[in-house]
Write a structure and sequence with these properties.
The chain is globular and about 55 Å long. It has one domain: Up-down Bundle (Na+/H+ antiporter like fold). It has twelve helices and no strands. It is about 80% helix and about 0% strand. The protein is mainly alpha-helical. Helix 1 crosses helix 5.
Length: about 325
């Protein structure tokens, strides 16, 4: 059992560690990391997503795992938002507890562990992941800001919620992650055969995404950690960051596992959903916190801690998923 986990997670951890070393020694500058990230997520990633989904019949996709994952995520979000005071900061922290790094870390890890069938399940989730969650969270944040602007005389920036919703939907669809998935599914429907030269080029580009994405995870982790350590203007909320890590890395996958098992999901889609839930905090959380100037330093610290401790919690989750092959929960 352990050799399966080590053989699949070992290369992932080594590439992240190498990326962290490159970032720590500044062999890759912040500007260089941004350019490399743009290349990975605008070229290599879309090639992998499009090629994989162009071979999948949309009628064969199973949507129940998405309902399990997204339903659990939405319930957790609103539960923690209410528990933490229904404020803008609470909305930001609640997002961090259930928004996973499904692309940069999830795609390579699921690909190594579950292969093409697992990637199809994950890509189906990714196609609506941001569309549902980011849109919901953006609308809530804008609604709360509008409420505050209404309560404060002459406050600037009261948002038009309808325009915000339209913009959020547009950005969630016309994005280098869900768009190639949707285009790939549409291409399959045409019944056309992809030219061999194009298929081989897409295969080469897609093969580069996994290693580069994992290196970028390490590089960005080192850079985020350096910025956090150098910031002397705030006292770092280690307790809050640790609480976030425990909720994101452990409670969320446990909740998805319980709901998925109760719904009778087959082993493969259930394992992919649980592993996706166990991934560290995703980059969109950082982007939203920066955009809205909410808990920026604390979210940065929480993302770093979630990723670091994820190298311990992910093997635990993967071992438990391997144990499920023996039907230990069927009694």
């Amino acid at each position: 059992m352990w050799h399966v986990v080590i053989s699949s997670l070992g290369p992932v951890m080594l590439l992240i560690a190498l990326g962290a070393a490159l970032g720590r020694w500044q062999w890759v500058s912040p500007e260089g990391a941004k350019e490399l990230s743009r290349l990975a997520f605008s070229v290599f990633g879309p090639a992998l997503l499009f090629r994989t989904m162009s071979q999948v019949d949309p009628a064969s996709l199973v949507w129940q795992p998405l309902a399990v994952y997204l339903g659990t995520a939405v319930l957790m979000y609103w539960g923690f938002w209410l528990r933490w005071g229904r404020s803008l900061s609470a909305a930001m922290w609640a997002m961090a507890t259930m928004f996973s790094n499904t692309v940069a870390l999830g795609i390579p890890l699921v690909g190594y562990v579950y292969g093409q069938p697992g990637l199809v399940v994950l890509f189906t989730l990714i196609s609506v992941h941001s569309l549902v969650l980011v849109t919901m969270i953006t609308v809530l944040l804008e609604w709360q800001r509008a409420q505050q602007a209404h309560l404060v005389p002459n406050a600037p920036g009261q948002a038009d919620l309808r325009a915000v919703l339209v913009q959020a939907l547009r950005q969630s669809i016309f994005h280098p992650v869900p768009l190639p998935i949707l285009l790939g599914l549409a291409f399959f429907q045409t019944g056309w055969s992809m030219p061999e030269a194009l298929d081989r080029a897409l295969q080469w580009l897609g093969a580069a995404f996994g290693p580069i994405a994992l290196l970028l995870v390490g590089i960005n982790l080192a850079q985020l950690w350096r910025v956090t350590a150098a910031d002397q203007t705030t006292s770092h909320p280690w307790r809050k960051a640790l609480e976030l890590t425990l909720l994101k890395n452990l409670l969320f996958p446990i909740a998805v596992a319980v709901v998925g098992w109760s719904a009778g999901l087959p082993h493969l889609p259930l394992s992919v959903m649980v592993l996706a839930a166990a991934l560290p905090v995703g980059a969109n959380v950082f982007l939203v916190s920066q955009s809205y100037a909410l808990e920026r330093e604390a979210i940065t610290l929480g993302m770093s801690l979630s990723t670091l401790l994820g190298m311990i919690s992910l093997p635990v989750v993967m071992v438990l998923l391997q144990m499920s092959d023996f039907k230990w929960w069927s009694f």
